[in-house]
Amino acid sequence: xxxxxxxxxxxxxxxxxxEADAEARFREAEEINAKYQPETELLYSVRGFKYCDLLxxxxxxxxxxxxxxxxxxxxxxxxxxxxxxxxxLRARRRSRG
Length: 97
What we know:
The protein has helices spanning 2-15, 19-36, 45-55, 57-96. The protein is an all-alpha fold. It has one domain. 14% of the residues are buried.
């Protein structure tokens, strides 16, 4: 029960963007687990999944930031290309006119 309570609290902290506190609680839960189940020192099942979710948060944020920047750059290039086409068409019309 103590292990499960710590994991539930840790997951709540994680979703409240308090990653350092959440990680501390997950580590406490792992210590409790190792004490009572030495053959499985790591958290497993749903508790292990939630801990992994926390551990992957920083990588996920970085990946999303990178993806969003790429989309922004692509949109900027497309806007610049459209502007160049517009300027080019206007220049052609003037030279014909």
